[in-house]
Write a structure and sequence with these properties.
This protein folds into two domains: about 325 residues, Rossmann fold (3-Layer(aba) Sandwich), CATH 3.40.50.970; about 35 residues, no CATH class. The protein is about 40% helix and about 10% strand. It has eleven helices and eight strands. The strands form two sheets. A six-stranded parallel beta sheet has the order 1-7-8-4-3-2. Helix 5 runs parallel beside helix 6. It is globular, with a radius of gyration of 22 Å.
Length: about 375
């Protein structure tokens, strides 16, 4: 019997000194908007760079408007994506219409890019079932609230694509908290063994609600787990949209060529709330937030575009105004459609409603009748 090859072990217990092996750390733009790794630049044309910038502005504009609406009682609880716009847009930029996207719940920027309307996303987050199904012709799975539950579905979809010999790729995202779920690692095993054309994007925004990533992982990285499953992995500056586009494009190309899955750790930061029921000041400091403000995705991209003469102050103002108007018009259409339907609360659960639930429905309808609510 052959002996096993020795495993190289670093003797240092300093997490920062752990050898990631072949896992690259990818960054194109630094926090000042300067290209520091030209070999990683995806080299987008100026019109494409403007389109990416506008998508990020639209994402943040919608995020801020939804927060205002939620505080005014006009929107349900939702998960803001403020600060993660580069991660969201970058991971779906390389996908075509034949490819699939399986999102988690903090993904409406990516969903907008994929073809969801603002109006539909508003309906979704306000609890209307009409907002939940993906639009016709959009190869997206419905997003998942249950942590990590959509990842095995994305993996199974990718396995089916490979078995059928189709030319499509699946991208699925999840948070750093999901990396503590066993079902994620089970998905890694199946994807690696079957060479499924799937790209796993773990959005490491620092916290699983209030639990810092340092209390979930002994290392200061998550990408290093991929090689243990035989999955090529990359650690990417998730606030650098060019780095995200380049890394995801590379992973998508690998998957499409039949070389199986890739794990991308997108290192970003949630600048806002976990959800609108959260108070992040309880578990993180202002100094930490201020540190990440200096590294958020908009500042560096605007500096880069300005330096190339692609965007100026007038262009920034015009894009901001356009996106604000687009969101407000969608909000008005949403208000016309968001008519409360309290008597539907028991629908869409059971085909044959159990007797106990029928009794609850009867009592509930009596209360609505007494209050004169249709």
């Amino acid at each position: 019997m052959r002996g096993l090859s020795p495993i190289r072990v670093r003797k240092s217990i300093d997490a920062r000194a752990i050898d990631l092996g072949d896992v690259p750390n990818i960054q194109v733009l630094d926090e000042h908007g300067t290209i520091i790794h030209a070999d990683r630049d995806p080299k987008l044309e100026p019109d494409e760079l403007r389109r990416v910038y506008r998508a990020m502005v639209l994402t943040r504009t919608l995020d801020q408007r939804m927060l205002t609406m939620q505080r005014q009682g006009q929107m349900g609880t939702f998960a803001p994506g403020y600060g993660q716009e580069a991660t969201e847009i970058g991971q779906v930029y390389p996908l075509t219409s034949r490819d699939w996207f399986a999102p988690s719940y903090r993904s409406f920027g990516a969903q907008l890019w994929r073809g969801w309307s603002i109006e539909q996303l508003l309906l979704l987050w306000d609890g209307y079932f009409e907002g939940f199904p993906p639009p016709p012709g959009v190869n997206d799975l419905p997003f998942s609230i249950v942590i990590g539950s959509h990842v095995p579905l994305a993996t199974g979809l990718a396995m089916a694509i490979r078995m059928k010999g189709e030319d499509a790729v699946v991208v699925t995202n999840f948070g750093d908290g999901a990396m503590s779920q066993g079902i994620i690692h089970e998905s890694f095993v199946f994807a690696a063994v079957h060479k499924a054309p799937v790209v796993f994007v773990v959005e490491n925004n620092g916290y699983a609600i209030s639990m810092p990533v340092q209390k979930q992982s002994v290392t200061d990285h998550l990408a290093g787990r991929g090689p243990g499953f035989g999955i090529p992995s990359m650690r990417v500056d998730g606030n650098d949209v060019l780095a995200m586009i380049g890394a995801t494009r590379e992973a998508v190309d690998r998957a499409r060529a039949g070389d199986g899955p890739t794990l991308i750790e997108a290192v970003t930061y949630r600048m806002s709330l976990h959800t609108t029921s959260d108070d992040p000041s309880v578990y993180r400091s202002e100094e930490e937030v201020e540190y990440w403000k200096q590294r958020e995705p908009f500042h560096r991209l605007e500096k880069y575009l300005a330096g190339r003469g692609i965007l100026d102050d007038d262009g920034i103002a015009a894009t901001t105004a356009e996106c604000e108007q687009e969101v407000l018009e969608a909000r008005d259409r949403f208000r016309e459609r968001s008519i409360p339907k309290p008597r539907e609360v028991f629908d869409f659960v059971y085909r044959n409603m159990p007797a106990e639930l029928k009794e609850q429905q009867r009592e509930y309808f009596q209360r609505l009748d007494r209050k004169g609510i249709e």
